[in-house]
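Many introductory courses stop at the sequence. We go one step further.
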Amino acid sequence: MTRPVRGLLVSALTLIAVAPVLAQSSPIQILFVGNSFTFGKYAPVRNYMGGYDSGPGGVSSAHVHDLQCLTAATCSAAGSVALSVPSTNPNVVNNPLYPTLTSQLNYLNTTGPKFTEPGPFGGIPGVFLKFTQEAGLNYDVSIDTIASATLNGTWKNSTNLPVISAATWDHVVLQEQSFTPLPTTIVVNGATVTTRGNPANFNTGVQAIVNSIHTNDAAAGRPDAAVTLYQTQPLASYSFLSTNLAMPIFGSSAGLSGGNNNQPYVGDPNPVARMANDLHNAYLTAAANANALGHSRVDVTLAGDSWITAINDDVTIGLNKCRWCPV
């Protein structure tokens, strides 16, 4: 087994350990909430183990239930849904060529890979489901994800509101947008740099979801669902300059210097590890703040830390060594 697969296995088993269960007649209902970091932008990861039925009580527990994609006829592209969700603040994108979320999506629709990500989604929940099946555990896995969305933005979307907080789930996994948990500013080589982070937004989203789950579970006379925050990995595009002048999305280009919020960690001695540490601290802080509400225990799966472990172990994929990893 390769180290990346082993790291993912450790992360998945951590989730299982939060709510251990033996195979039984009634499956454990688990919901994954997030964005494209959850489902994976490209096939085959995006659709791995994904299915079209409506989740708990649906046709089959053999695949992931994509709650944004109940049937083949109604399954929509994530790109069109993302436009309706307050996922990013265009004012802080700060790219002179593509300053708004809409202009970035238009770029993706006209240049390079199309921003069409049709479901049904599987991704990380699909891998998790496969592990539970191989382990002889009885889980019913659902996914509710929108590309680019923050937890707070997803929460405010009227379609997602009743789904996430329904008194249905035994376990809810929450994964934030990649940059939102970061500090609003960081210091690199003595200079203060503004990031695209909004930790207050992250904490608001987590606490709103945890509070509503508690309210609905209490009203239904059932225990609070367990909640796990799933830490994402750091981004190379936030840490290193690109030589592609035409690449404005999610990071840097040669047309922009380091030290701005599209590549805030550029120039740090170990930028990827620095970003991972900031994400690590943000997720632990969000969990502590949510636990202070006095509801169900909120835990953290530090999957992003496993990413750094893989880099430090000099992981290779096939014959190609990681080309951007720090020396």
